[in-house]
Structure formats: C-alpha cells, structure tokens
C-alpha cells in the first residue's frame, strides 16, 4: 500500500475546493470556466495550496448544476474542453498543485445515453443499469424512500409501468450498483481520468452509492437521532448506508493504487455519527483516504461541541487513517456565515481552528478572504432544492456566487457589464485585490496560517492532545512544541499555564508576544503559541 502513515502531499497539504462556474470567467459569458481557473492558479500558489478539488466538470444539463452527469468522460462545454482540463492539470502541476475531480457515481442525468436506452423498454440493454420496481397494487411507490430533495424517491415510467429510483431529482436516476456491468463501467471511468493525470476524486454521495437490494422500507427517525435526521423523518438505513458500499470502495482503492502516481479517494460521507463515518476508511487504508466529517461541518462553533467531535475522531480513527476538516462547501454554506454570522474575528478564529487541527483542511473558494454567503432573493433561486422544496433555508445559491477578485465592475470575475450566472455579493466588503494590499487582512492571515502550518511540522503531522481550558475556550497541543488556544465564546477568557511566544494570532498585533503563565484572550480571539 503506497499511502501509509508516512507523510504525503494530501496529509500534510492544504486543499482548496473550486466551484468552476463561479471562480473566474475567461470568455465573458458570465460563467466561470477552466481557463479562468488556470488564470488564477498563481493566487492559489501564493496562498500555499497543495491540491484543488473541482466541483463537477462533466457534461450535464445542469438540473443539479453538474451533479447530473450526461457523459462521464468529457468536459462540460460551458467550462471548456478536455484540452483545457489537460492544461489545467499541467499548469497546476508546474506550481506544485494536484487536481481532484468530482465523481458522481450514485446517479446519472436522465439524459445520459444509458438512461435514454433504459427507457426504451424492459429488455433494453441498459435497463438494469438503473433501479426499477413495480408500484404497489394501489399504485403507490414501491417503498417509503424519500428523495433528499423532497418527495418520494420513485417516479413512474408510464411506458413500461415500472418506477425508477432517484434519491435526488427525478432527472437524476440512481444507478444499480448490484449490476457488475455498472461497476466495470466505473472502473474504466476512473482509469480514463487517472491516465489524464488527475490526483484523485472527491466522490459524491459515497454513503449512498449502493441501495438495499431488497428495497426494504427505511425506519422512521427517533428522538435520539441527529436533528438533521429527525428533520428528514427517516433513518436512511436501507436507501443509503448499505454495508456493500465498502466492496465498491475497496475495488476503487485497487484502481486508484494502480494509477501512476497512486491517487486518492475523498468521500462525501454524509453521515452524522462517527460509528458510521469511520468504516469508510476501511482497515485504515484500503478504502477512502479521507472521509468528509459532516458532524464537524454542522456543529456549532462552540468549544465543547467541536472538542467532543475532534476527540472522538482522535480516539476512534485507526492510527493509519487521517482526519479531514472543512467549514464550507457548495451545499452546507460558508463558514463566515454559518459559524461566524459575518463577524470577521469569528471567521478568523474558525480558520485558525481548521488550519491547526490534525487532519487535512479543505478551504472553499472565498474562505481565504472570509467571504460570507451572499444574501440572494430565494424567489430567484437557481438551486433545484430551493425551487422544489420552496424552503429558502435550503437555497444553496448564496454560497455559490462568483469569486470577488476585485471591486471593479465584473468583480474581476467577468468582463464589466456582463451579468454573471449568479449575482455578486457585496464586492466592496470582500474582495481579493483589496485584501492582498492589506497586510492585516483575512487573506494575509490565511496565507500566514498556511505558511506556518507548512513550516512547523507539529501543526501538520504532530499529535493532538486537548488541554484544560475554561468554558468556551478550546485549547490543544500539537506535537511537542505548539499550543493552540481558541476563545470561541463571546466573553474575554484567561487560560493559565501557557508558556512561549505567539507565532500567530487572529489579532495580528499580538504576533510575537511572549506568554508566560496566564494568557488573556478577547472574544473570538485565537493564538498559536510556539515553544510552550
Ligand atoms: C451531493 C452534492 C450536491 C448534489 C447532490 C446530488 O450532495 O454535493 O451538490 O446536489 O450530491 O448529486
């Protein structure tokens, strides 16, 4: 196994998620594209990024903005060409950065050739690539599974009289992972991209790839379930989270290890307890390299809550496995809003937490400038979830708006006068150019944090140990030589027994300060103390 406990780019590095439609528009059509990403690789190199994950880049009718793939081995024409992607991989490589693509194996677009063929009748060549079942005698759906995007997970195909499964939109039919041909087709898809030089995949809905073969009903949620499970109404015991998914992951691990160089697999493992999360790492290194931790994403930015989750990972994750932490993404929203409610100090202390934990940090484009969600009109949502459910709190557009590179017309994202595919947020309040000119900005703070993490091996690979701290404060040691103290409360706090020099503080005027004995932190202040 090539990717053991030794150091490696993805364990020690900082990864960065790019939503390609919103990063930079190179051709003035209001939609970000791959050439736009290439044009801004220097920004990422300057920031200190080691790898990027691109949200879906494959052809798609965009019912779910790329998560409805119509062709798994091509590039969406809105984003560019296969040659552009090759160039992006090469240009990133020249700057020491690797590229991960988004793989969406749970479902395809209904316009994928496989599904179009499957619709042609019960005997179609690709019929069994999808999950079909007869409706109940009263005409109701085959079981009680609910789409994650609202409503039943089944749609009747009137022509054949059978229903097909879709755990998301009706235009996102679920693939049948019990079919060996589906598995073989995906082996080829993985190899196709590995041969083009990508460094791995982020795997969409990893926990849901395999559905129960017998299509058993999901149990009703109980008061003991996570609030998000209770809100859903059902435990997704049979529709998602089947043990057989681990066979698929082991199989992909073999394919990824055979790639040159060996590639990594990062899973969207949307489960809400550690007992379900940890098995996605397999025996430590035979399944996913990294399994996103949504307990952490959805926790309050509160000392006790965060410490409990991280201590759980530290205690339960096999020694050969490696944690991963993120605060923002294209579904859950931006940390500057969710955790920090727009407060710059709080966003900074959150970034300090992310970049000093033992685990790979993933930043989402804009996190480095403390970008909040944009306040958009939900009535104009492009997100199918907001449109389908009518629930403005489920609108994902606010965290997918164009990157504000500057306060100029077009925001440095597109040409002046061009309407971007989603509106800009407040580009005066947050933009890269202004923060680049300001040594005290969140952008410089994030860059300095990344540089410190790289320079001090303690902060990347060093072991984690919680330290005693007053209520509202989270203090931990990393390795032998560093202590991180985060005041996540809204009151001033004093922490005793801290000795050393402040290597970096959220309040930059404290950088270099000597600490001996009692450390006093203002609300939402954090420090990294060296030599303690
Ligand atoms: C994942 C993606 C999300 C998408 C869904 C359906 O959760 O992150 O954006 O809508 O899968 O593919």
Describe this structure in words.
- There is one protein chain.
- With 532 residues, this protein is α/β, with parallel strands linked by helices.
- Helices cover 26% and strands 16% of the residues.
- It is built from 17 helices and 17 strands.
- The strands form three sheets. It has an eight-stranded parallel sheet.
- A hairpin with a 5-residue loop joins strand 12 and strand 13 (473-478).
- Helix 6 runs parallel beside helix 8 (245-258) and helix 13 packs parallel to helix 16.
- It is globular and about 75 Å long.
- Mean pLDDT is 96; it is low at 1-5.
- Bound molecules: alpha-D-glucopyranose.
- Alpha-D-glucopyranose (GLC) binds next to loops.
What is the number of E strands?
17
Tell me the distance between the termini.
36 Å
- By DSSP (H or I, 4+ residues per run), the number of helices equals 17
The helix content is: 25-40%
Please give the radius of gyration in angstroms. 23 Å
Side-by-side strand order of the widest sheet: 9-8-7-3-2-1-11-10
């Amino acid at each position: 196994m090539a990717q053991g406990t030794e150091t490696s780019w993805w364990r020690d590095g900082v990864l960065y998620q790019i939503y390609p439609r919103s990063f930079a528009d190179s051709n003035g059509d209001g939609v970000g594209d791959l050439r736009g990403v290439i044009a801004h690789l220097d920004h990422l190199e300057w920031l200190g990024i080691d790898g990027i994950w691109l949200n879906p880049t494959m052809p798609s009718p965009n019912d779910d903005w790329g998560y409805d793939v119509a062709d798994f081995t091509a590039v969406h024409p809105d984003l560019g060409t296969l040659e552009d992607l090759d160039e992006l991989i090469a240009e990133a490589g020249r700057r020491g950065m690797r590229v991960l693509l988004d793989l969406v194996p749970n479902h395809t677009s209904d316009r994928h050739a496989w599904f179009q063929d499957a619709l042609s009748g019960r005997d179609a060549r690709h019929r069994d690539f999808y999950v079909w079942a007869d409706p109940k005698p009263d005409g109701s759906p085959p079981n009680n599974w609910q789409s994650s995007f609202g409503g039943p997970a089944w749609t009747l195909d009137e022509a054949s009289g059978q229903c097909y499964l879709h755990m998301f939109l009706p235009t996102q039919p679920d693939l049948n992972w019990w079919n060996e041909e589906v598995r073989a087709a995906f082996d080829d898809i993985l190899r196709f991209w590995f041969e083009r030089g990508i460094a791995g995949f982020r795997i969409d809905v990893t926990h849901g790839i395999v559905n129960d073969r017998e299509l058993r009903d999901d149990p009703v949620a109980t008061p003991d379930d996570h609030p998000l499970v209770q809100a859903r109404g059902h435990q997704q015991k049979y529709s998602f989270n089947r043990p057989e998914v681990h066979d698929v992951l082991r199989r992909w691990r073999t394919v990824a290890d055979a790639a040159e160089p060996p590639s990594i697999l990062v899973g969207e493992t949307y489960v809400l307890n550690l007992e379900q999360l940890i098995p996605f790492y397999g025996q430590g290194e035979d399944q996913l390299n990294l399994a996103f931790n949504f307990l952490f994403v959805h926790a309050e930015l509160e000392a006790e809550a965060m410490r409990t989750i991280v201590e759980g990972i530290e205690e339960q994750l096999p020694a050969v496995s490696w944690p991963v932490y993120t605060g923002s993404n294209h579904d859950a929203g931006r940390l500057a809003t969710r955790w920090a409610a727009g407060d710059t100090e709080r966003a900074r202390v959150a970034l300090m937490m992310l970049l000093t934990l033992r685990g790979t940090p993933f930043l989402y484009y804009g996190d480095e400038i403390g970008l909040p969600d944009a306040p958009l009109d939900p009535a104009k949502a492009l997100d199918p979830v907001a449109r389908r459910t009518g629930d403005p709190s489920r609108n994902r557009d606010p965290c997918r708006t164009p990157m504000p590179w500057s306060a100029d017309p077009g925001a440095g994202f597109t040409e002046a006068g061009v309407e971007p595919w989603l509106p800009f947020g407040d580009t005066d309040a947050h933009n890269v150019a202004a923060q680049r000119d300001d040594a005290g900005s969140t952008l410089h703070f994030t860059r300095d944090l990344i540089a410190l993490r790289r320079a001090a091996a303690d902060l990347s690979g060093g072991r984690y140990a919680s330290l005693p701290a007053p209520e509202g404060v989270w203090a931990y040691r990393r390795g032998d030589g560093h202590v991180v103290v985060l005041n996540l409360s809204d009151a001033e706090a004093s922490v005793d027994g801290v000795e050393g020099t402040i290597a970096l503080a959220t309040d930059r005027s404290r950088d270099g300060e000597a600490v001996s004995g009692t450390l006093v932190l203002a609300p939402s202040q954090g420090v990294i103390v060296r030599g303690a």
